[in-house]
Description:
Shape: globular
CATH superfamily of the largest domain: Glycoside hydrolase, family 3, N-terminal domain
Distance between the termini: 49 Å
EC number: 3.2.1.21
Pfam families: Glyco_hydro_3, Glyco_hydro_3_C
Radius of gyration: 24 Å
Domain Glycoside hydrolase family 3 C-terminal: 317-526
Strand order of the largest sheet: 9-14-13-12-10-11
Number of strands: 14
GO molecular function: beta-glucosidase activity
Number of helices: 17
Enzyme class: hydrolase
CATH topology of the largest domain: TIM Barrel
Amino acid sequence: MVNGIQNGSLSTRLGIPMIYGIDAVHGHNNVYKATIFPHNVGLGVTRDPVLIKKIGDATALEVRATGIQYVFAPCIAVCRDPRWGRCYESYSEDPKIVEAMTEIITGLQGDISGNSRKGIPYVAGKNKVAACAKHYVGDGGTSRGINENNTLINYRGLLNIHMPAYHDSIVKGVSTVMVSYSSWNGKKMHANHFLVTDYLKNKLKFRGFVISDWLGIDKITSPPHSNYSYSIQAGVGAGIDMIMVPFNFTEFIDVLHYQVKNDIIPESRIDDAVERILRVKFVMGLFENPLADLSLVNQLGSEEHRQLAREAVRKSLVLLKNGKSAEKPLLPLPKKAANILVAGSHADNLGYQCGGWTITWQGAGGNNLTVGTTIFDAVKQTIDPATNVFYKESPDPTFVKSNNFSYAIVIVGEPPYAETFGDSLNLTIPEPGPSTITNVCESIQCVVVLITGRPVVIQPYLSKIDALVAAWLPGTEGQGVADLLFGDYGFTGKLARTWFKTVNQLPMNVGDKNYDPLFPFGFGLTTNPT
């Protein structure tokens, strides 16, 4: 497909190659059999830039394996309120961790040399991809975490919390920056000339191109597209160089032509956009190598990349509780036991384990989505052959009591979601999650593994639970979860987000005056490998 579009581009009068971009936000997540890495909320826990760079490197190879040259990643949002449906796309509430994680850019694009000029985009060749720092700026700071909403913060706060990772990205040679749907103090980012042109392009010396989000300029007006000529004038005038026009591109071209002809948009603005887009294409070597390199096809979902994802899962889990008293830890679990129970909606569900932005935009449940290992499969592969393992998605109390289980592993959480569909004012896990916890943990020793895109309401059940693990959205390599539960490796992860007691406390971030969390930022119990 990509080669077909590219051949069309090369056959035009000037033969300028097109650039094709895709949302590869946790691996090459739209493609069947690709390696799905943990979402950013889990990667922030690792605080391991070397690992993150390797994930960027692997993702670049898998994307190039399908002929694509450009990814809309990384998301360097600083999520300040977990009610936001995109919080799992953010590495942390702490800008320092988000800054460290921009190291994924050098994995995606390659290492920039020390003597290159600040702001010049850099892509190391045909095994690498152009990256995109997004969403500029303040996307993670909206009121009550409402997606695409308004970030109310003073200029200093914007620069201290939401801007730092953009500095790092630009120093690392990021090729593109995507503008946020959100507003800053009531002004739409897609129409913000001060932040896009004066600050990003002129002050930070960014020389790559600025891209809109999907229908981003349409959403400058409310309702969207209600004054499209204004949207084009405001968006292009703000300094956006490439516009995502998913449907009616002829309308966009006609209106833009009209505005340039009539000096509504100066031709110098068009020249700036063209220069920036061509600069990225030249730097990437797109003119020399416009077509897919078919020799990379075996990189997709390779064993090496799956092992890397499994390592990332191990390093991203956080052990929040281990035993009803510290003297009697439950983890690591014994591999040899008479009977064990695995329960919960998320125990044997690869789609739930991967979350949103997996094969489809919103993600989906079930095990037919792509190829990987569910946590239940991983448990079966890890335990002693003599151990009997029972699986029941939502067992009733009678079943739990009558089978003489040594212990239970309960795996529950949130269903997949993306963007606005994930906005939540209550942050509860849906039924049958809570009743499964109650039915199982009231009768037998249990470890609860949470598969969620963010901290959720867990305080009401905590006293019943013997051990509690935050596994976030681990992706296709569920074996990484079993590696820790059974002690092949130790838990090392520390929370990169504050875990609240009740939603009434939100927003609550580390360093706040009235900081009273259930589990504080930086918390995480450790275990030794057995």
